[in-house]
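name: query_chain
kind: protein
chains: 1
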Amino acid sequence: MMELLSDPQAWISLITLAALEIVLGIDNIVFITILAARLPKEQQHRARQLGLAVALVSRLALLASISWVVKLQATLFTALGHAVTGKDLILLGGGLFLIAKASFEIYDKVEAEEPTTHTGGMGAAAATMGRVLVQIMILDLVFSLDSVITAVGMAEHLEVMAAAVILAVIVMMAFAGPVGDFVERHPSIKILALSFLVMIGVLLVAEGTGAHLSKGYVYFGMAFALSIELLNMRYRKKRAQLATARSPMSKQGSEAP
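structure:
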């Protein structure tokens, strides 16, 4: 252990891997935030923290069973010229679940006559802490598998991988609250986040069927879309302020003695 602490290469691997784990964890934070929003306001913070704690446990458990993770990459059978592995099946199932869940949430927010919320609506009573955590655990397994396989490919020592995962989850816990509150305050950002989850689901399905697509393109596209939406929000806010300043009531107030 002391040798690792004095090894510059180990520190470089730790910092690089922790940064990568944080980036890969963005989709995890978004998914947890969307699910936690179905709970009463006083339970949302706890649900986000528990969801990330489950993510940490999942990653550490997978790291502790690296031999099993490696076996998941062994060929189970061949279909349409593609050697299907256990990892492919998990990614395929997780991707389909993510697409279905995010698509339902988009429909619920955009098209449903009475959207499901924690304050009322068609399925308000169905949104319980237990049900939300079960859904988080299902997707955490998929995200954790992807994260751990990346960690195994970048670092040589289990201690470095575990430390990077712990650091990443701590950072995610620190920012989950502000990110969740921001998404909840702005419906357009929530729709954008759900669209991001659909794209991540498509990527998982593609990877599960043997098509390897870079997540960098998706992250860049979503970052660009987010920047445009932030500009739109600033524009709408400025227009609203100008409209308020020019309203007859405000003019009367300014002319009053």
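note: The longest strand covers residues 75-79.
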